[in-house]
Amino acid sequence: MLAFSHRGTLRHRHSPRLTDLHLSSWYDNDDNDDRYTGRRSRTFASRAGGGERTASAERSRTRRTRGTSNNDSERGARRTEQQQQRQKNLYEKRTTVQSSGGEQSSQSLSSIDCPHFGTCPGCVVSTNIQDIDVIESAKLYFSSQSVQKHAIPHNRKDRKRYFHEEEEEFYKVIIPSSITSWRSQAKLAVAPTSTWSRSSGATIGLYARHSHDVLSIPECKSRRNDCGGYQKSSHARLFGGHRRGLLRYIQLQVELSTGKICLTLVMNAEKLKECQPHLSFLVKELKRMDDKREVWHSIWCHCNDSGGNSIFARDSSRWHPIPGSDPAVKEGLLYFSPMVFRQGNFEGFSEIAREVREAIPEGSKVCEMYAGVGLLGLSSLLYHGKLKADGKLDRGLKWLRCSDENPENERCFELAVNSMPMHITGRTPKNFDSGKTRGDKQWRGKNQQSRRNRDTSMKDLMDKMVSSSNTSDDMSTSKDQPSVTYTVANAASALYQGQALGADVLIVDPPRKGLEEPVLQQLCQPRNSKQPYVENANMLSHLPRHTINWVNDVRTLIYVSCGFDALARDCDQLLTSNAGWKIESATGYVLFPGSNHVESVVVFRR
Asked: Compositional bias of type Basic and acidic residues: which residue ranges (predicted)?
């Protein structure tokens, strides 16, 4: 579950195993009841001039025909019933629903009864949420011969089946959460209700299609009930005219454990002092509404006076926390602040994390790129660490390396690692000032000082190289104490710094545009058997950089995709390269029910 800590940081307890649900029997195709009704009973009549049949012969033949027709009808009815049962079972397998909210009826899982459908740009379907273009394209792609010939044999669609086996699609689709009340994070636009009267208040919602007109969606079915009532908190004094209002956007993030909301106010200003006195007045009104402290967990202000449609500026110094609650840190928590990326359907994404960690072999060395706060990597670390605690020391991950270009992710990552047991992380908690953001001068000064202290001499560098060369392949020193690190760098830079050297498993969760070209090129290179096994880039300094395979030891690639077009393009290059990749599984997750979007998890082996 989620929690917040340290002045607005969200904490997420590593999700427990969610309850498995299956759709109830839905397949009642009355139109097919007469498909196998047997042969039609023939009618006999005497043809003129064709002679007369005796009555007994006619009755005898009629009895035989009637008996045959009844037998065929019974067999046809049985075939129809069996076919319907097979299709029903197959549909249930393809539409497995996993939810922590208990069992739901099939009607509630197949229909979104939203009054805003049709006018709101968020949803494209309200019924049969799996019948969307992107899922159909994914099914066709992964079932194509060009992909199936690279599939691992026991998972191939064209493998030999017995007559009683049902044909299952290679690309399985899962609805990991309820199709309503699933959104725990929302970014909404704000505009004055009227350009002529300030007393009319503000409109909060989404931009209408192909315009900047804000459409209010107070009855949105995807929004959690915890987000209700936010529209009452706006005030007309914040607006000085259309599109020139001080308050531009709001972001709502729900703490799943308590239902409280972390609110971010995006102001049309360069500095915090330019938001006054209106910001103080608004915060005072928000707190007055929440006199029992049951709504707001914490409030942040983000200054963004740039043009365009970007909600947040990339400058981290524009974030200003307004103090919130600070609950106690608990074991095994993930941390999020408004400055880092977080999935809108967090409960559903926990099922993706479950598939990822179960696809990692025991005792692996894992590298995660595009890691964000390290959700997938840390979830796997905790999962395999608990297996290790059961008695088999080789089950835990030997080490974990995560990287991402957002510098704010490192703070959340370190807070999460510090909250985990030492027998899983294998290191003592770092001294990390969780109350400071990168916008604070004190934090920046401290960071620059620590950077100067990290300057090493040539002797120190040689000592590191010697100690690295003495490290054996089984990593005996880190076998019981896995190393957990985070690097602030984009995927290509992290790769060339040697983050994936020695890794058995590589996890990538790129943005919608897919893998960066240098990363994809390295993954498409064949394995170099002459390249020595190292875990430190310094040990390959004697080799020309263009000859180094930076993913030479990776045997498992787990690709988490949010854009199918980029995924198909990258898969084509991976499978047609000489790197030896085979596709083991492909699964689609409907994280945002009603939209034309699917998250995919593809596991490659070599």
From this structure: 72-81, 433-443
